[in-house]
Specification:
Radius of gyration: 24 Å
Distance between the termini: 24 Å
Structural class: mainly alpha
Order of helices and strands: HHHHHHHHHHHHHHHHHHHH
Number of domains: 2
Strand content: under 5%
């Protein structure tokens, strides 16, 4: 009734005046919501760039970074729950989001279950106040809360921009590490940025880059090229060989996804392949010479690491041999308890962890833990591919490769937030309708 009266009043006014009156509440609402929007942008930039890890490491956060992420997302989730409760039927949109993403939620729940079950084992690691016992449960909470985040239209429509802000902050921190060595890095004379570890920093750059690219060669060719170039420069600045491999695979994946998704002609496909090859070759041969003028490059063994990597030589500065020994140790531990594992957090007692998440899951939680993580990656890859969400495909591929060289990917806030948010955003795409329950009713407004 009230809305009818408003419509009648607007019809009685001149067109320009009616339009101004109708737009007035929207402008006021936007003004009132501006602090909320700023809170979202700043928070996502903070956690996606891994700045939370840096400030947590130097004890400038009042709580642990994982808890800080939960506290950041919780008020937004409460807002979404309240808004959806007012709909008819109540909480219908949240129900559709949960049902539409069960393929990813269920494997993650299995990972949590394996972690909690493994905590009952005698060899489970309860040190550091049980951090490594409870952290997977916290991570699942972050994932679920992030899944609700894109139900706010502002987030859903501008998530790529927010991811770009996180990537820009991370690139800045890596660049500062190059100019002023050890500004953030915990490793001597190796850039890492906010993550503090060069391999971790390289993986984060690749994952954020994969989630930021538009994969549309006509409209966003220049944008994607700039993002790829700056990200590649940062990856090479970390001197991370695993990061270089991951980055080159991302470039190849970008070329293939862009061509396949947009069903271009053979001529466009060849053009994209040639362009991608040129980009890779440019970084392989040009970037090392650019970095050679920096203090970090000149004072470290960077030249041996990069040029040895490019020429196919094994250049061991101690880290490769250490990782190989840790992997062999992990394989021996797996043989001792292949099915159930040794207990959650057991790898923390190894001295040197395996630097491989697949091995870590198997050592800690047995075959079930490993298969649960593989199922999480595979199910996420399937739904992103079905819904034609190239950012999600790129993220999962980057993380799958990165998990071979890092043991803490599953604990990283940037991955959990990106995974949860992109799962929900992909539901709003036209291609999602045919691959979701209830006759494609998973889309929401």
């Amino acid at each position: 009734m009230e809305m009818s009266i408003v419509r009648v009043m607007l019809n009685e006014l001149p067109p320009r005046r009616a339009a101004a009156v109708q737009a007035g509440p929207v402008s006021v609402a936007s003004f009132l919501l501006f602090p909320v929007y700023l809170y979202i942008i700043a928070g996502l930039g903070f956690f996606l760039s891994n700045a939370d890890n840096h400030y947590g490491r130097i004890r400038m956060l009042p709580v642990a970074p994982t808890v800080a992420a939960v506290l950041f997302l919780a008020p937004l989730a409460v807002f979404v729950l309240f808004a959806d409760a007012l709909r008819k039927p109540s909480l219908s949109s949240i129900g559709r989001v949960i049902r539409g993403n069960l393929m990813v939620i269920v494997p993650f729940l299995f990972i949590v279950g394996c972690s909690l079950f493994g905590s009952l084992f005698p060899e489970a690691y309860w040190g550091e106040d049980g951090k490594y016992i409870y952290i997977i449960s916290y991570d699942f909470c972050i994932f679920l809360l992030a899944m609700l985040l894109p139900m706010i239209r502002f987030v859903r429509e501008r998530f790529v921009v927010m991811t770009l802000c996180g990537l820009a902050a991370l690139l800045y921190s890596v660049g500062l590490d190059v100019i002023v060595p050890n500004s953030f890095s915990g490793e001597e004379l190796r850039a890492a940025g906010f993550p503090g570890n060069s391999n971790w920093g390289a993986l984060t750059v690749v994952a954020l880059c994969a989630s930021t690219l538009r994969y549309q060669p006509n409209k966003y060719r220049l944008f994607d090229g700039v993002v790829l170039a700056l990200s590649g420069l940062a990856v090479f600045a970390t001197l991370s060989r695993s990061g270089m491999v991951n980055y080159m695979l991302l470039v190849l994946l970008y070329v293939l996804q862009t061509f396949v998704l947009h069903e271009g002609s053979m001529r466009k496909g060849i053009t994209l392949l040639v362009t991608g090859s040129v980009v890779v070759l440019a970084f392989l041969f040009v970037v090392p010479y650019i970095l050679s003028n920096t203090e970090m490059f000149a004072r470290s063994n960077a030249a041996d690491r990069i040029f040895g990597f490019l020429s196919g030589k094994v250049v061991d500065d101690g880290s490769s041999g250490e990782r190989l020994k840790a992997a062999h140790h992990a394989l021996r531990l797996i043989q001792e308890a292949p099915l159930l594992g040794h207990g959650t957090g057991f790898t923390r007692t190894m001295g040197v962890p395996p630097h491989n998440l697949y091995l870590q899951q198997w050592v800690n939680n047995g075959l079930a833990g490993l298969l649960s993580y593989l199922a999480l990656l595979l199910s996420a890859l399937v739904i992103f591919a079905r819904r034609k969400m190239p950012q999600g495909v790129g993220l999962i591929c980057a993380v799958a490769v990165g998990s071979m060289f890092s043991h803490n990917v599953l604990e990283q806030r940037y991955f959990l937030i990106l995974l949860g948010a992109l799962c929900t955003i992909s539901l709003s795409l036209p291609h999602a309708a045919a691959h979701t329950p209830h006759n494609g009713q998973a889309r929401y407004r």
